[in-house]
Amino acid sequence: MLNVTPLNQPESLSKMAYNAIRRSILSGDIKIDEIYYEVHIAKNLGISRTPVREALLELSSQGLISLLPRKGFIVKTFSRKDIEEIFEIRSAIELATVEKISQTSSLLEFNTLDDILTSQCRAAADKAHSKFVKLDRSFHVALGKLTNNSRIEIIMQNIRDFMHLMGLHAVELRGRMDAVVNEHKMLLHAVRQGMIMESRVLMNYHLQQSRNAVLQTYVTPSSHSKA
Amino acid sequence: MLNVTPLNQPESLSKMAYNAIRRSILSGDIKIDEIYYEVHIAKNLGISRTPVREALLELSSQGLISLLPRKGFIVKTFSRKDIEEIFEIRSAIELATVEKISQTSSLLEFNTLDDILTSQCRAAADKAHSKFVKLDRSFHVALGKLTNNSRIEIIMQNIRDFMHLMGLHAVELRGRMDAVVNEHKMLLHAVRQGMIMESRVLMNYHLQQSRNAVLQTYVTPSSHSKA
């Protein structure tokens, strides 16, 4: 008998389907409030329905989509409670993050954060919303990495897709991208200078502003009871 | 053909093995710094080696044990870095927790916490270390539940076994159990009275003291470079 491992093609196809669908959700190509069907996705990707089904189950278990009857799905929208929960976690973790890294800032390397900030400036000028949100997420995850606490990094990674989706529409609010760039700049300055309390205050302000932008986007006045 | 689901016995046996081994680790029956073997565990439990192997892989992936050559394993001990990481997470999450719940304390139900505290008093008087640590974990997880933030609860649940293992030896330090009961009492009083800053300060003090006790237990002066 030949000593080779089976190719296990279905698994690899479902992983490819997963990546393709996730990418389309995070870029906004797959739209909120629109129903999509397994069969159409499969046709579009040029593959059979089984791997698409597997990919959808995975995305659903991560909370990115809701499955509907007749093999349809929609991108998850967020209730007021979802938004408040995510921002509570972010606030707990990210205030502790800037507090810690501003204490050790003289030993740290901020090049990655500088580069991200420069690209964010450009994306804001170009009104490249999707690119901007991607960079925004990278900025916060890169801050988390500087803590050198693998468990903080994991929590930040676990909520990164939610941060992204929530930001996707919030940055379309007039002036929000420029404001974010400004908030990031001030924050990074404070952290780098080792200004511990200022870093906490600025991060808190930034998260409050982001939370308000997200709530304004997702929770319309008439749907306040949605949560 | 009969429409019955196969019993899938191996899975259920490995789950039973998992629970039994995990329980022995958390109770301290399976000791730190001692090597155990798959074959002996299987003999002890009266089952075959396959389910035991599966249980050990699961416990290893959760970080509770380290697998050794020749199918042995040891309970994971913690480096200074592990301890600092876990306490950083706890501090970020639990300070935010008491801050939030002291803001809404008049609307909350503290019966569970009162009951746990009463039992902790008794366990301390009886010098029932293992029981005490179990109650300690319950106290902190119950505080997390009061935030009504499912994501905070999940983070607390995810680190509960580490909290438990770290506490298991720390509470054997002379006087530590009485001190913990006292710290919990003061903390609960402040939270209940809606004293926001006091709650943060008391939680911070409690976690600092616990962290020091754990470091004293796990990191001997000569092993400071272990991290």
What does this structure look like?
By secondary structure, chain A is mostly helical. In chain A, 69% of the residues lie in helices and 4% in strands. Chain A has helices at 9-27, 38-45, 49-61, 80-103, 111-125, 129-145, 150-158, 160-170, 176-192, 196-218; strands at 36-37, 65-68, 72-75. Chain A has a three-stranded antiparallel beta sheet with strand order 1-3-2. In chain A, strand 2 (65-68) and strand 3 form a beta hairpin. In chain A, helix 5 (111-125) packs antiparallel against helix 6 (129-145). Mean pLDDT of chain A is 90; it is low at 222-227. At the A-B interface, helix 4 and helix 7 of A face helix 4 and helix 7 of B.
Largest interface (CB < 8 Å): A-B, 19 and 18 residues
Largest sheet: spatial strand order of chain A: 1-3-2
Reading the helices and strands of chain A in chain order gives HEHHEEHHHHHHH
Low-confidence stretches of chain A: 222-227
Please work out how many helical segments of chain A DSSP would assign: 10
The named CATH superfamily of the largest domain in chain A? GntR ligand-binding domain-like
How much helicity do the residues of chain A have? 55-70%
Q: What oligomeric state is this?
A: homodimer
Number of strands of chain A: 3
Structural Rg of chain A: 20 Å
Organism (chains A, B): Desulfocicer vacuolatum DSM 3385
Domain HTH gntR-type (chains A, B): 11-78
GO molecular function (chains A, B): DNA binding; DNA-binding transcription factor activity
Protein name (chains A, B): DNA-binding transcriptional regulator, GntR family
